[in-house]
């Protein structure tokens, strides 16, 4: 039997959670405070690029198991489970800002059904389950931490095929009831206390960011010693204790989670008296990586980008998403703009040249147009289609045959054979 569920917030996490829970047979009402967003969702328009999400939303709505309403107060009255999926942006001191979550809890507290369960799905600082409980002011409602591990671009698949479901609660019965919502899914269910569940989320993201910074640092070493990072990663990854995942070198990590969560974990640790030097270094290596890629582009542009045109392929923080939040590509572009480059960019998922993050960047709708007359081409997002483009044509159009491949996506040997200067990340 499906359960009655309210989801507060229809961002990445909320919309995916709502759509997937309806797919599992639950009766889901999603609430948001933005009228245009709710109207669009009710018309079946999905505001984000996310594989499989449209289908699930349409199927859920058609089955009468998924609906969208304006305001949390219109969603929670009937619900046995209320998922809080609200933003926790980075505050001025690096810590996560809990104000959206706290005000939603205060708002819905008086409206909740006796015996219902409020679930923190957003990434929240350790201790937030207690903070939410305080704001609810309800002895008859349990608060459970149930962090989400989905990745943008594969959010639906990640939700429906989790490696694990983590549930943190001091109330064993509430934890079991939340676990039952996911009964149809594979993956181990780990029930623990709220602080441990909240910490698992931060630890997981920080560890993944650490892997990437490690491999980016190793790529720098490879360049110095004449090794090839792809083979090095392959050789490391065959050791099953290490594994080969999340060891793809690139222009640095970005997105809406790793930067915010790594800073927040540094703050959480330091507020409790532990100086998290390791994680600080992981963040510093990432900043260095943006600079290293900008330097490669500068070198290929002849030592200075001032007055030069840099063609950029890829603006989103990774492929298969239209999200540019904390995108390494944007960081690198800004470094080039600051020293006088002209940047002409193409991304298959970006056509909004009015986006303030793209101020000063010329956005074009065609990868060949981007390279025409350019002094250097930089590949900054790993869209697979870039590797399929016609490089003979690129060679004819580009001003100088120079490519910096920030994602090791292209066939460097073939490009060199075709007369391009080519540089990747840690490649021979
Ligand atoms: C990340 C985590 O992977 C999810 O498990 C987590 O739920 C999510 O954050 C979150 O906290 O909400 P996401 O931000 O969607 O997911 O993106 P990732 O696929 O993890 O990539 C993050 C960044 O690392 C991207 O810029 C990507 O290009 C980069 N990356 C990733 C690498 O440079 N190398 C890799 O091997 C993997």
Largest sheet: 6 strands, parallel
Work out the number of β strands: 14
Per CATH, the superfamily of the largest domain is: NAD(P)-binding Rossmann-like Domain
Strand order of the biggest β-sheet: 3-2-1-4-5-6
- According to CATH, the fold-level topology of the largest domain is Rossmann fold
Low-confidence stretches: none
Integer tally of domains = 2
Shape: globular
Helix proportion range: 40-55%
Order of helices and strands: EHEHHEEHEHEHEHEHHHHEHEEHEHEHE
| Integer-rounded radius of gyration | 23 Å
Please explain how this structure is put together.
The protein is α/β, with parallel strands linked by helices. The chain folds into two domains: 188 residues, NAD(P)-binding Rossmann-like Domain (Rossmann fold, 3-Layer(aba) Sandwich); 236 residues, Rossmann fold, CATH 3.40.50.720. It has 15 helices and 14 strands. The strands form three sheets. Strands 3-2-1-4-5-6 form a six-stranded parallel β-sheet, with helices on both faces. Strands 11-10-9-12-13-14 form a six-stranded parallel β-sheet. A two-stranded parallel sheet has the order 7-8. Strand 7, helix 7 and strand 8 form a beta-alpha-beta unit. The mean pLDDT is 97. It binds uridine-5'-diphosphate-glucuronic acid. Uridine-5'-diphosphate-glucuronic acid binds next to helix 8 and helix 10.
Structural key phrases:
428 residues; alpha/beta; Rossmann fold; 2 domains; 15 helices; 40% helix; globular; binds uridine-5'-diphosphate-glucuronic acid
């Amino acid at each position: 039997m499906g359960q009655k569920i309210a989801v507060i917030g229809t961002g990445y996490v909320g919309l995916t959670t709502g759509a997937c829970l309806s797919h599992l047979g639950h009766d889901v009402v999603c609430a948001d405070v933005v009228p245009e967003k709710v109207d669009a969702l009710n018309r079946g328009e999905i505001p984000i690029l996310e594989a499989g999400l449209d289908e699930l939303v349409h199927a859920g709505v058609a089955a009468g198991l998924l609906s969208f309403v304006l305001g949390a107060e219109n969603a929670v009255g009937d619900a046995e489970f209320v998922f809080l999926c609200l933003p926790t942006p980075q505050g001025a001191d690096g810590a996560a800002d809990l104000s959206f979550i706290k005000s939603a809890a205060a708002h819905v507290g008086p409206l909740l059904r006796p015996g219902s369960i409020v679930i923190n799905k957003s990434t929240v600082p350790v201790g937030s389950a207690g903070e939410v409980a305080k704001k609810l002011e309800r002895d008859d409602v349990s608060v459970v931490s149930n962090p989400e591990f989905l990745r943008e671009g594969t959010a639906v698949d990640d939700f429906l095929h989790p490696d694990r479901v983590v549930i943190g609660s001091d109330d064993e019965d509430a934890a079991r009831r939340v676990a039952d919502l996911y009964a149809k899914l594979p993956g181990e269910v780990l029930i623990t206390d709220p602080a441990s569940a909240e910490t698992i989320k931060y630890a997981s993201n920080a560890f993944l960011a650490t892997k990437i910074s490690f491999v980016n640092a190793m790529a720098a070493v490879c360049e110095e010693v004449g090794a090839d990072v792809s083979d090095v990663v392959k050789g490391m990854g065959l050791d099953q204790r290490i594994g080969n995942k999340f060891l793809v070198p690139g222009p640095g990590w970005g997105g809406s989670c790793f930067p915010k969560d790594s800073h927040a974990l540094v703050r959480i640790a330091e507020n409790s008296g532990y100086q998290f030097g390791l994680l600080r270094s992981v963040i510093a290596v990432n900043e260095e990586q943006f600079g290293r890629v900008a330097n490669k582009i500068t070198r290929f542009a002849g030592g200075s980008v001032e007055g030069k045109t840099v063609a950029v392929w890829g603006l989103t923080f990774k492929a298969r998403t239209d999200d540019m939040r904390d995108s390494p590509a944007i960081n690198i572009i800004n470094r080039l703009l600051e020293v006088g480059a002209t940047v002409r960019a193409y991304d298959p998922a970006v056509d909004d040249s009015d986006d303030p993050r793209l101020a000063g960047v010329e956005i074009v709708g065609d990868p060949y147009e981007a390279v025409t007359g350019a002094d250097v081409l930089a590949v900054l997002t790993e869209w697979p289609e870039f590797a399929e483009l016609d490089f003979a044509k690129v060679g004819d159009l580009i001003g100088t045959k120079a490519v910096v491949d920030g994602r090791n996506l292209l066939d460097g040997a073939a490009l060199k054979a075709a007369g391009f200067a080519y540089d990747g990340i840690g490649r021979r």
